[in-house]
Design brief:
- The protein is mainly alpha-helical.
- It is built from 8 helices and 3 strands; from the N terminus they run ααβββαααααα.
- The chain starts with a helix and ends in an 11-residue tail after the last helix.
- The structure holds iron/sulfur cluster (2 copies).
Length: about 160
């Protein structure tokens, strides 16, 4: 993945190209503030999934999900049965983001210093890979932390 980041960095210097990271390249990389931002706008990093908070999707059958990348079983209602406004304003729905707490994180995400911001990465990806939200193995922070860990750290000096 560092190679991909290097390619993106290089391409960003070319006139007419505006490559930047999306969530399929992982989260919370040290390169996030630079590579996740479109050239010419203020740097930003990954801020977690906003499905059901800032985004909503309506599928062709009328079913409503916080994001249409989420699996069908995470539908919150159907606009053929009730108004989208009623679905959206129901505080009991979209609980995976609206009612998220740090205790929802599992696996490496549960111990991650970025958990409060990242909230376990993309919920659609987590569902596809793990069958649940709150955990993601598709994470740049984990890879970078592993790469920084000393492999052959010297033991304590002998007296
Ligand atoms: S370990 Fe989990 S919470 Fe931490 S940055 Fe990666 S995906 Fe996000
Ligand atoms: S589920 Fe993934 S693709 Fe959809 S809004 Fe959340 S982070 Fe974005």
């Amino acid at each position: 993945m560092p190679d991909v980041f290097a390619i993106i960095r290089r391409l960003r210097t070319r006139a007419g190209l505006r490559p930047f990271l999306t969530n399929n390249l992982g989260y919370m990389s040290w390169d996030d503030p630079i590579l996740r931002s479109a050239p010419g706008v203020a740097p930003r990093c990954w801020l977690g999934c906003f499905a059901g908070v800032r985004t909503v999707g309506v599928a062709s059958d009328g079913s409503v999900r916080g994001c249409l990348a989420l699996p069908y079983e995470m539908r919150e209602g159907n606009v053929r049965d009730e108004a989208l406004k009623s679905i959206w304003r129901d505080p009991a729905r979209f609980a995976y983001t609206r009612a998220f707490t740090l205790t929802d994180l599992t696996g490496a995400c549960a111990a991650c210093e970025h958990g409060a911001v990242c909230r376990g990465g993309c919920n659609a990806l987590a569902m596809r890979v793990h069958g649940k939200t709150g955990t993601c193995t598709h994470c740049m922070a984990q890879h970078e932390d592993a790469a920084r860990a000393p492999v052959d750290a010297p033991g304590p000096a002998s007296a």
